[in-house]
Amino acid sequence: MATERYTVRVTKDYLVFCSGHFITYDGDQCERLHGHNYRAAIELEGPLDPSYYLFDFVTLKNIGRRLTDELDHFMMLPTRNPHIKIKEVGPQVHVSYKDREWVFPRSECVLLPIENTTAELLGRYLAVKLLEELEQKHHFVPDVLRVEIEESFGQSATYEWRK
Ligand SMILES: [Zn+2]
């Protein structure tokens, strides 16, 4: 028997976030601080509702824009990285990796409960927040949710969640 599946996808310049980061890799390496003009794409799969909609595009765009705005023009720091130490000291955040140390204004950082600010984990982070909001505010759980994070042209990672 044939099966049908519908997908909606949003991606545009309003899902761009320009943020600072650095990642650790190979266990004992750490990038220099730099930034990207990241762009998110959000894709939902699921059945159609009685109005023949899977999910309203405008609502999906607005949620995506709000979530990416929370990262835009911030320094992104991973709080679960075993090699990067993060300490909030008054209005500052002290960040250290081995003998390197950075100090940022707390108000210019976003502390993310992830292990590394890779495109993969940023995708998962946004997907988890999106799923929460879809379920709590819109009583909607998609069959599949994908969040793609493009770090630079032609270079992206996708996180996929399935019901
Ligand atoms: Zn990078």
What is the general shape? elongated
Helix and strand element order: EEEEEHEEEEEHEE
> So, the CATH homologous superfamily?
6-pyruvoyl tetrahydropterin synthase/QueD
The tally of helices reads: 2
- Give the overall average pLDDT: 95
Helix content range: 10-25%
CATH class designation: Alpha Beta
Largest sheet: 5 strands, antiparallel
Number of domains: 1
Q: How far do the termini sit from each other?
A: 22 Å
Count of strand segments: 12
Q: Which spans have pLDDT < 50 for at least 5 consecutive residues?
A: none
GO molecular function: 6-carboxytetrahydropterin synthase activity; metal ion binding
Cofactor: Zn(2+)
Pfam families: PTPS
Organism: Telmatocola sphagniphila
What key phrases describe this protein's structure?
single chain, five-stranded antiparallel sheet, 20% helix, three-stranded antiparallel sheet, binds zinc ion, 163 residues, 12 strands, Tetrahydropterin Synthase, Chain A, elongated, alpha+beta, 2 helices
Q: What does this protein structure show overall?
A:
The protein is α+β, with helices and mostly antiparallel strands and 163 residues long. Helix content is 20%, strand content 43%. The protein has helices at 57-69, 119-138, and strands at residues 6-10, 16-21, 24-25, 29-30, 34-46, 75-78, 85-89, 92-97, 100-105, 109-112, 144-152, 155-162. The strands form four sheets. Strands 1, 2, 5, 11 and 12 form a five-stranded antiparallel beta sheet that branches. Strands 7-8-9 form a three-stranded antiparallel beta sheet, with no helix packed on it. Helix 1 (57-69) packs across helix 2. The radius of gyration is 18 Å and the shape is elongated. The mean pLDDT is 95. It binds zinc ion. Zinc ion binds next to strand 5. Zinc ion binds at residues 21, 34, 36.
